[in-house]
Design goal:
The protein has an 8-stranded mixed beta sheet, with helices on both faces. Helix content is about 55%, strand content about 15%. α6 crosses α11 and α7 crosses α8. It has about 270 residues and is of the alpha/beta class. It folds into 2 domains: about 150 residues, Rossmann fold (3-Layer(aba) Sandwich), CATH 3.40.50.720; about 90 residues, ProC C-terminal domain-like (ProC C-terminal domain-like fold), CATH 1.10.3730.10. The protein has 11 helices and 8 strands. β7, α5 and β8 form a beta-alpha-beta unit.
């Protein structure tokens, strides 16, 4: 595992750092630049990593993870650009396109853009990755190793596909929470206690997802096995179809993908 410099030490950076250390990385091979004193203290105490107040103190290892808020990137990149000497830069800043980051970094092109999601906080995330042609297979593998520390990884062929990744898996946890919330409320409406309804809804989502992951079978096939002809599930699925739930999910992903593209345009005009 290469030494890694994190610029920004928020929740996602902390999750990745924890995953890297759990995977065998040495804490002393990881440095974090974080302006917030409390966050720095927590990272040092929790992981034993090297922390700095600002970029001027950092060694800047061969692999740099940009984990600051997108709105802060132009300023951070301007400071970072004069200190780059061929490092691989992995950006997990949502919405910031490679071309804009390259421009802010003074033409630096060894960049991988990643879109992780919040289940990374419990090492159960999935990240979409994109790299321009200038990034070689070895560098791609290094970036992948970083994100695999907190879950799965998929590569996309064009950067615009990261808008779809954002809409499906980036925003996706909120859709799942929405469904859990709705199933829980339906259980309460049927007379179950709130605690019982929540336990049933949570474990059902967790168990169904685990079954789908581990079986490797098509979700439609798994659904058909639960849906006995003339049974309760068939009646419930019919109600969902009548309500247009599947189409609504499509509309949600379309809307989120469009907004992701809009945010990319807006962020590109920051500097």
């Amino acid at each position: 595992m290469h030494k890694v410099s994190f610029i920004g030490g928020g929740n996602m950076a902390a999750a990745i750092i924890g995953g890297l250390i759990a995977s065998g990385a040495q804490p002393t091979d990881i440095e974090v630049v974080e302006i917030n004193a409390d966050a720095r203290a927590q990272l040092a105490a929790r992981f034993g990593v090297v922390t700095h107040t600002d970029l001027s103190q950092a060694r800047l290892h061969a692999l740099i993870v940009l984990a600051v808020k997108p709105q802060s990137l132009p300023e951070v990149a301007a400071t970072l650009s004069s200190r780059l000497a061929g490092q691989l830069v992995v950006s997990i800043a949502a919405g910031v396109r490679v071309a804009d980051l390259t421009r802010w970094l003074g033409g630096h092109s060894r960049i991988v853009r990643a879109m992780p999601n919040t289940p990374a906080l419990v090492q159960a995330g999935i990240a979409g990755l994109y790299a321009p042609a200038a990034v070689n297979p070895d560098a791609r593998s290094q970036a992948e190793t970083v994100l695999r520390a907190v879950g799965g990884v998929v590569w996309v062929e064009s950067e615009s596909q990261l808008d779809a990744v954002t809409a499906v898996s980036g925003s996706g946890p909120a859709y799942v929470f929405y469904c859990i919330e709705s199933l829980e409320a339906a259980g309460v409406a049927q007379g179950l206690s709130a605690a019982t309804a929540r336990q049933l809804a949570l474990q059902t989502f967790f168990g169904a997802a685990k079954l789908a992951l581990e079986s490797g079978e098509e979700p439609a096939l798994l659904r058909s096995r639960v849906t006995s002809k003339g049974g309760t599930t068939e009646r419930g699925i019919a109600a969902l179809e009548t309500a247009g739930v599947k189409a609504a999910f499509g509309q949600a992903v379309d809307a989120a993908s469009l907004r992701s593209a809009e945010l990319g345009d807006e962020l590109g005009r920051l500097a």
